[in-house]
Amino acid sequence: MSAVFLGVRHHSPACARLVERTVAELRPAQVLIEGPAEMNGRLDELLLGHELPVAVFSHYRDGHRAATSWAPLCDYSPEWVALRAGRAAGAQVRFVDLPAWHPAFAERTNRYADAEARYAEATERLCRQFAVDSSDALWDRLFEVEPDGGLTERLDAYFALVRGDAEADAGDRARETYMAAWVRAAVEAAGDRPVLVVTGGFHQPALRALTGSGARDVADGDGWERGADGWPVVPAPPDDAMAGSFLVPYSFRKLDAFAGYQSGMPSPGYYQQVWEAGPEAAADGLFRVVVERLRARKYPVSTADLIAARSLSEGLTALRGHPSPARIDVLDGLAGALITDDLDQPLPWTGRGTLTAGAHPAVVEMVAACGGDRIGRLHPDTPAPPLVHDVAEQLAALALDGGPEATYRLDLTDAADLERSRVLHRLRVLGIPGLERTAGPTHGVDPVFTERWEARPVLGREAALVEAGAYGATLAEAAAVALTGRTRGDAAEADGLAGALFDAVLCGMGGFSEQLLGELSSCVRELQVSGPLGEILATALGLWRHDRVFGMARGPLLAAVIDGATERLLWLLEGARGSSGVDFPRLRAVVAVRDAVLHAPELLSVSREVATGVARRISEDPQAPIDLRGASFGLARSLGRAPGAPGVSGDPAEAVRAVARTGADALGDWLAGLFALARDEVTGVVGDDDGPGGGAESLIDVLDGLVGALSDDEFLSGLPALRQAFAFFPPRERDRIAARLLERRAVRGSSRSLLRTTADPLLIARARALEESVSRLLARYELEATP
Fold first, then answer.
1. SS3 of 706, please?
2. If 472 and its partner were Cys, which of 30, 202, 478, 706 is the partner (CB 3.0–4.6 Å)?
3. Closest by alpha carbon to 363, among 331, 402, 400?
4. Are 61 and 43 within 8 A, CB to CB?
5. Digit-coded pLDDT (tens) for 192-246
6. Would you give the DSSP letter of residue 493?
7. DSSP conformation class of 356
8. Cα-based distances in Å from 423 to 399, 441, 709, 743, 774
9. Rounded distance, CA 621 to CA 676, Å?
10. Cβ neighbour number for residue 784 with a 10 Å cutoff
11. How confident is the model at residue 757 (pLDDT cuts 50, 70, 90)?
12. Are 542 and 505 in contact (CB under 8 A)?
């Protein structure tokens, strides 16, 4: 007896009904299903009595590659129906696809995202032929709303057409030769009884070709060995890899194409109703749910609107020749009756993909109603990875399992509370919902020693814990692997490396600190952007200098990070080239370099003299960004004023005059860099003759003279940059600067009156310039008013 191949579309009610009917009629000896073969010894877990949707979550990790994937199943998934109906019919049921860790699934997070993108050309031709907007509308037209008679033949023709135009990649070819090996073994084992093969329709033509007459000699050389039981051997992961598969709860939202799902049918809530009660009842239910959702959000929907929507839907069903209402008939009817505005974008069901920002409120509710809000639930006896049990034990031991209304206030100076905090932070970095920190330290030198955590809704917590088990068997191990992963690959280019370092501290460095900090020290020597690198240096240096809570102060583990970041930043800063404006992250990076050289010289491989030389070269380089030149001038002075330094470098008054000759805008940007680094060193205590900026000619005196000499147009142009530069001064210092300016002009009064204007100074300056321009124009045409 030969095999019977059923090509299906994943999560299609019509295909699920066909599978159920075929099993009942055929009574096969074997039912082979596209699914992870490593689960064959655990199929009883799938049949424990879960509330669907659920998914088989698979993970893999070795020294070079990490991968996760899901094989989701809902009530109307053909694969689920084949498993359930096949078992009920007494057949031997097996999954026959490669394990999810196999390289054939590289870059694929959804097992059932077969090849729909690759046969888009064929479906586009069919859409034009049948005058529909999308492949989903085409599928409904051909299969979901048509009578079941002749469904097998229509499916065969459809998949033969789309596969004929699509080229399978190497991964699909490997999967198909493996599945074909299972088919041949099943046919041999079944004798004269039939074998039913249920796979995605994309694979069906290839499997027929690989297992048909004339193909045996080629197929037997496919390289897949058989075990002693006569069945193909399930490939095992490498010895040094960690891999596994577990069941997790899934949700209709994750199954919905409008939320980003990659395969199968969209709108799972709608098709669940189609599966349970048929398209007529599903249409009635969708009308009701959409109206309820809109009215709950105060969107006006009258009875007349509902009648109009039903009438439009029935008319579209008849006009399109559908024997029963399709999903698109109902949605188009609702849109036509409820939306009177002009839409800025096409209706989302005319294509595939996620909803975009700015979608009409009625459209949002229609899509949500179609998607449904069902969340699966696993049977209590379902095996879970070790991490799930470890978390439960730790939360119970630390009294952190207080329920949905719990609130925890933690004193980080207390050893017991510090340990509770570490456990909660490990859960946070793994993305486990349930508890959220609402207060606590935000960076390495934040003088906050308490935390507050509050319970949050725990939807998805069980699935998140199972999925986090891919990182390790214990909470500490899993958090360490997750944090280390944030320092590798593309993640190492993000601004989050400083956050990863501080998260590692919050989680408790423990035994994984050396590996993580080793990764960080490697990353900092390769970063190309100074801003994120400056954040890392500031965080590490702050912890090394000041931490008394997390046990990191003066510790040797941060030395490599501080040294590598400082050396790399000096190299990046000297190589920076000109751009207008002020780069505040880069200025903060220069501040971090200054602090490292001044306060942690014993950790650095670059000396203060070398850093000072770099700063001087940048400050004198006309190709360097103007704000960085100012910051480097300040850096050189800061390092030169330190004890044991050779001396202060450069006269700030002369430097300011030189920059001012290039324009008021450049002056403001240069001063912003200077004030970010050397506010105290350059200006001193303003008005104090003993300060470095005081005396007969302080920097403030020089600036006052330069700004006073600007023309009105120059002043208006340079004012924004100058205001931005002086924003680096705190209020008390600005008050003293204002007092100095009043003193220079022999004006009596409070300095606060100079700082507190009735309107924005820039607006006042622009208004004055406008008034003068109007006055000149009136004078030109002799239109000025007479006294």
1. helix
2. 478
3. 331
4. no
5. 899 999 999 888 888 988 887 544 444 444 568 888 888 999 988 888 888 888 9
6. G
7. P
8. 11, 16, 62, 59, 68
9. 19
10. 11
11. low
12. no
The edge-to-edge listing of strands for the beta sheet with 407-411 is 407-411, 450-455, 435-439
Q: How many CB atoms lie within 10 A of CB 716?
A: 17
pTM of this prediction exceeds 0.85: no
Residue 340, Cβ neighbours under 10 Å: how many? 7
Q: What is the pLDDT of residues 99-113, one digit of tens each?
A: 988 888 876 666 666
Amino acid at 774: V
pLDDT 10s digits, 676-735: 888 765 555 433 444 444 444 577 778 878 887 877 777 777 777 787 888 788 877 777
DSSP letter (8 states) at residue 430: T
464 alpha-carbon distance from chain centroid = 16
Determine the Cα–Cα distance for residues 424 and 412; give it in Å rounded to an integer. Answer: 13
Dig out the tokens for 733 from the structure: 């210092």
773, two tokens: 């321009």
Give whole-number Cα distances, 44 to 86, 243, 453, 723, in Å: 13, 20, 40, 71
- Residue 259: exposed, middle, or buried by beta-carbon count in 10 A (0-12, 13-18, 19+)? middle
Q: Is 322 helix (H, G, I), strand (E, B) or coil?
A: coil
Q: For residue 53, is the peptide bond before it cis, meaning its omega torsion is within 30 degrees of 0?
A: yes
Cα–Cα distance, 475 to 425 (Å, whole number): 10
C-alpha distances (whole Å) from 576 to each of 153, 494, 593, 659, 663 are 66, 19, 15, 19, 21
Rounded to whole angstroms, how far apart are CA atoms 416 and 408? 13
Q: Give the SS3 label for residue 643.
A: coil
Q: How far apart are CA 615 and CA 151, in angstroms?
A: 77
Longest Cα–Cα distance in the chain = 117
Tokens representing residue 338 in the block: 């409820």
C-alpha–C-alpha distance, residues 100 and 322, integer Å: 39
Instruction: Return the SS3 of 456.
Output: coil
Q: Name, of 183-192, 483-492, 743-752, the range with top average pLDDT.
A: 183-192
Contact assessment for residue 576 and residue 587, using Cβ atoms and an 8 Å cutoff: no
DSSP 583-632: -HHHHHHHHHHHHHHHH-GGG-SS-HHHHHHHHHHHHT-TTS-HHHHHHH
- Residue 354 has a CB neighbour count (10 Å cut-off) of 12
Which region holds residue 191: left if phi is over 0, alpha if psi is between -120 and 50, else beta? left
Residue 477's alpha-carbon distances to 237, 264, 482, 492, 550, in angstroms, are: 21, 36, 9, 20, 19
Three-class secondary structure assignment of 53-104? CEEEEEEEECCCCEEEEEEEECCCCHHHHHHHHHHHCCCEEEEEECCCCCHH
701: nearest Cα among 685, 713, 686, 716: 686
Per DSSP, which regions of 139-278 are E strands? 195-200, 242-249
Using alpha carbons only, what angle is made at residue 393 by residues 389 and 394, rounded to the nearest 5 degrees?
120
Task: List the one residue out of 518, 511, 528 whose CA is nearest residue 476.
Answer: 511
